[in-house]
């Protein structure tokens, strides 16, 4: 007759391993969300047709540890104490930006904006003479950027709030992940 001996030690070790793995996973998730990547929900239509209201996207928080935002980047920044905005970087420190006759000029040179083509077409069909109203030259101060929404007729951006301090930038939008049918890179 054989005798069975059951030990509680392996079960205690297994429980301890599960707890340890769970704690490590929570710490890693916290570190990744705090320093590397974070989800963001687009609120409003200021970035139409590039981004749509209620889309969910991933923001790369680590990218600007290595360098400053560049023209064309779509960024999230702290616009107010309780609200973040998402806009496109148009100009950086030292640049002069203005709009004349519906053309964006940075340092006196016309900037091509292919992401506005559909909007400009719709504005013309609706009898709007310009998609982006003229504004006089603005010189971007050190450690600041000038941002604008892609939906220029419906965007509260640097034209109203002024240049944005780089210290308020959360990160660069990388890709949308919701709705699943619209997963895509944002650049």
From TrEMBL:
Protein's cellular compartments: Cell membrane; Membrane
Pfam families reported in the protein's UniProt record: Peptidase_S26
A molecular-function term among this protein's GO annotations: signal peptidase activity
Transmembrane intervals: 21-42
Domain Peptidase S26: 15-178
This enzyme's EC code(s): 3.4.21.89
Catalytic activity as recorded in UniProt: Cleavage of hydrophobic, N-terminal signal or leader sequences from secreted and periplasmic proteins
Membrane topology: Single-pass type II membrane protein
Keywords: Hydrolase, Membrane, Protease, Transmembrane, Transmembrane helix
NCBIfam families given in the database record: sigpep_I_bact (TIGR02227)
Family named by the database record: Belongs to the peptidase S26 family.
Protein name per Swiss-Prot or TrEMBL: Signal peptidase I
Lineage: Bacteria, Bacillati, Bacillota, Bacilli, Bacillales
